[in-house]
Design brief:
The protein is α+β, with helices and mostly antiparallel strands. The protein is built from three helices and ten strands. It is 27% helix and 30% strand. A hairpin with a 5-residue loop joins strand 5 and strand 6.
């Protein structure tokens, strides 16, 4: 009987954990913002505006903040769908920054099992990238400054894929076939 209760409690704990809710370990977003969701930008001025309609907005209070970050930025497509979420902060020292980077790397890697991990280390900068499918998490430590970026490249490419498919249906050649890609 004790074994069954213990097994039940273990299963309940796993079912309620963030790892279990990561839907096949897919990177879905951060700080309470989710890729592909629409951000209400009414009355807000972007802190960045790109040529292709993408914009970035500073967020004062995200739904789920993290203690190491004091600034948050959400990047949206031309139709206000979220494709990148960033947090930035400053640590007390460069060694504290590196410790936080290593801690966050382990937490994120556990949350998204199977993500490919790339780490690089230089004199002033340390960087870890975890990629799973078209989504990635990049954690950077530069001296005392720490930053994390969650990005869904699929949110950006889906509109292009739809335009290419529509062009093919209409008998027009795909945009990428008209380009000389030999230099790539």
């Amino acid at each position: 009987m004790k074994m069954r209760i213990g097994l039940f409690l273990l299963c309940a704990a796993l079912a309620l954990s963030p790892v279990a809710h990561a839907e096949n370990g897919a990177i879905k977003g951060a700080f309470g913002f989710w890729f592909g969701e629409t951000l209400d930008t009414s009355g807000k001025a972007p802190v960045f505006r790109g040529d292709n309609g993408v914009r970035a907005y500073a967020v004062e209070s995200p739904p789920s903040p993290y203690g190491a970050f004091s600034r948050y930025t959400v990047y949206v497509t031309e139709d206000d769908r979220i494709y990148e979420i960033a947090g930035d902060g400053r640590m007390d020292s460069s060694s504290a920054c590196i410790d936080e980077l290593l801690f966050m790397t382990e937490v994120v890697a556990a949350k998204y099992p199977g993500a490919a991990r790339l780490a690089s280390e230089g004199t002033l900068i340390r960087r870890t990238v975890l990629r799973k499918g078209h989504n990635l998490v990049e954690i950077v430590c530069l001296d005392e400054d720490i930053a994390i970026r969650y990005r869904d490249d699929g949110v950006l490419t889906r509109p292009l894929d739809a335009r290419l498919a529509k062009g093919a249906q209409e008998g027009r050649p795909a945009e990428t076939r008209e380009r000389d890609t030999s230099g790539l």
